[in-house]
Amino acid sequence: MEVSTHGRAGFATQANALFRKSLTYQKRNRTQNLCLLITPLVIVGFFATVEHYMRTLTESSESLRSMEVRNPVPWPPALKIPPDAKRMAEKMFPPVSIENPSDMDRLVLATPAPLFQSNYLVDVAFQPDSPSPLYYLQTKCKANSSFPYPTGKEVKCVEGLKLWRNSSSEINKEVYKGNGANKQNKIDNNFGAALDFSNTNKANFNVILWSEPSRAESAFSFNFSRLPRLVNMASNVYLQALQGSGTQILFEFMKEVPTTLRISASLSEIVDLFLRMTTFGLLLFPVTVLVTLIVYEKEKNLRIMMKMHGLRDTAYWSITYIYCLFVSLLFVQFFLIAGKLSGLYFFTKNDYIVQSMFYFVHVNWQISFAFVIAALVPTVKTAQVVCSTFMMLCCVIAFYVVTKFFESSDFSSKTIVLVEMFPGFALYRGVYEFQKYASFARSGAGVGMQWKNLNDPGNGLKTAMAIMMVEWKVMLLLAYYLDQVVSTGSGRTKSPLYFLHCLRRKPKFQQQNMQRYTSQLSSSNDHSDVAQERQKVEQLMQEGSTSHTAICDNIKKIYPGRDGNPAKAAVRGLSLALAKSECFGMLGPNGAGKTSFISMMIGLTDPTSGTAYIEGLDITTSMDDVYTCMGVCPQFDLLWETLTGREHLYFYGRLKNLKGSVLTRAVEEALKDVNLFHGGIADKHSGKYSGGMKRRLSVAISLIGDPKIVYLDEPSTGLDPASRNSLWNVVKHAKKNRTILLTTHSMEEAEALCDRLGVFVDGALRCLKARYGGYFIFTMTTVQGNDTEVEDMVLKLCNNANKTYHLGGTQKFELPKHEVRLADIFQLVEDAKSRFPVQAWALADTTLEDVFIKVTCQAQAVSSDE
């Protein structure tokens, strides 16, 4: 592979690499993306079809279009009075203990503003299940009175309180302050009505009335008018002033004229209700898609794979945000265009620019909210369950609870703002306002939501947008923070107060070395070669030398005990120095701690104590910088199945700052080296590769870009002999310019590739091959009875000979190479043959398999003794 001189990739370079990869990946997933964009078209089309069908049905059928009311029901004339908690004077309608009225000829029925209103039911004050009580006004409430009209609920007597003001301007001022639509005042709805008699005299009856406007409260457009009773009260006051208290105009009930009621409007209102709730749920739906996209890369370890090859968090989150914004805006525009084309009032009556601006703010809020959820959940299934549950709960709570907050005057503006601050409810407030203004426009009471309407009293759209804008920024910061400190598969986590570490003064490199040197004690159990390696590391650390690519300084990993089990020491103080252009092989049985060691080195887990330095960079404090100079071939292939092998190498090459012809040449050479270039294999999706082809691609990814150190975790697993030999040649060539740390179970691979070998057992480095490899294995088989004589002859030849096997007449001895000569061994055999029958003999060098088995058995024996 070509060695290129290139610097560290900047933000723009990495962002460009990730953008190209993401664009290609999403092109291959066009079916999923198309389904997402078609969803609003289908939903809007469905509602347009339903509304058109219902309109056609009602217009074609007279029985469905109207309802005859031949005998209207009489009902008492009523006044609208404020609820108990919001009246101007507490004594105006005090708590009532007297139930029976007197002076029935002066009866006035009054009701406070409903606690919960509904556009599809008659005035709640006249419903048996309404929480609002009914009152009737009397000059003096007396006991044992009765109310002549059936109401189906309790009717309370209250005594009226007359408040006098000197001028109409004072009345105007106080009525304005008390109006519920005036948000500048904390007291709302505190006047039931007001009357101005200043222009009235004996010859002229001229009175001004202040009252809340009458509104259609039912599905059939009934208007419970409150003005007739006020006119009757004013008229009686004038007559009594002229003629005395005995003069009055009786006003016992009101009655609608027989008519035919049209019900087509009510059906449209029902469609509007379901359209509002569906729109709310539809606009929350992309959250699930975005969270799934982010969590998928984290669950499959693709995110950490990119990070280990140098991709910085800022580039990753920026490009991910831009992609999510693009997809979400497309989704919203498809939604708005479909609504315009469908002719639904929700879309056609409200200004397109106002809707687009509101949805733009919502889309950014939605992305930041998706980032927060993605930082907290580890798997795609969990993310989908969390998002689906959130969406359903929001819809249910909004329909049954939040709507009542918006429609009732019993809740202050501050309370409503607090409700809207809950994720999702500010969006619902906006949808609610759009639907409300569209309904007004359809009935001829307005033109829909326009820019000028944002300042209307009671319009909550502007407040909802402000809330979402604030939450958008806050949640972006929160998502980035959680991604750094919460362990859900995005790599090594940081301290919850990591942002304060920049205020701490870091000790100088030499101070760190001296502190480590004076506090570290060598293990008494280390063998000579392991102890020498430890001393070498201590010397390098004391000198502050950077001559070695990697220096592991007494690094440890201890997993805490759980469920009553003791703590597990996975790595027991490993000290190791890896020189440049060296391939170090790590052998060991399963569970020896090799994976734990590699995980610390590549930034997946934190060391419990100790540290390691890569090119002088501390992995505990500068891992982001370490990522830029390392390559990783993980034990399991981490690939995008819809990307080709060539696209993978282009992506990782760009992350390593390869550009132009250098990048193209490096990619082609890498494909040729791992035998993936010819036959169109390089341009096939990696999901169609065999296991061996994926393995070779992973090795090529780890080597591209000239990393200073490469971690190969069982690189030849699943390869046929020819591909394996070809891969070994690639690794042999690559180690000339970089340090390679290789883990393997193949003794043949270790001997073929590694300059040094270490056997890792029970969390500790037990030996280097040189110590166990300096022996001859001498075996001799004779008839029984000559065993002692054979042993004496061997010990005479070599005093340090070690008998390792004896069964029957067969004995096996280890002979240190530096104490014997081959000629002396052959002479011993000739002497033995002249003295007694020798059935067989053999002389062999120590194999790596012999070393591995011997070290493992000895280590396990020591562990069992402990």
Automatic annotation (TrEMBL):
Transmembrane stretches, by residue range?
A: 34-54, 273-296, 316-337, 357-378, 385-403
MF-aspect GO terms = ABC-type transporter activity; ATP binding; ATP hydrolysis activity; lipid transporter activity
Which controlled-vocabulary keywords does the entry list? Answer: ATP-binding, Membrane, Nucleotide-binding, Transmembrane, Transmembrane helix, Transport
Q: Does the keyword Metal-binding apply?
A: no
Q: Which residues form the ABC transporter domain?
A: 550-787
What SUPFAM superfamilies does the record tag this protein with? Answer: P-loop containing nucleoside triphosphate hydrolases
One of the record's GO cellular component terms: membrane
Q: Which Gene3D superfamilies match?
A: P-loop containing nucleotide triphosphate hydrolases
User: What kind of membrane protein is this, topologically?
Assistant: Multi-pass membrane protein
Main location (coarse class): membrane
Coiled-coil stretches, from where to where? none
Localization per record: Membrane
> Which Pfam families did the record assign?
ABC2_membrane_3, ABC_tran, ABCA12_C
Similarity comment:
Belongs to the ABC transporter superfamily. ABCA family. CPR flippase (TC 3.A.1.211) subfamily.
Please give the name of this protein. ABC transporter domain-containing protein
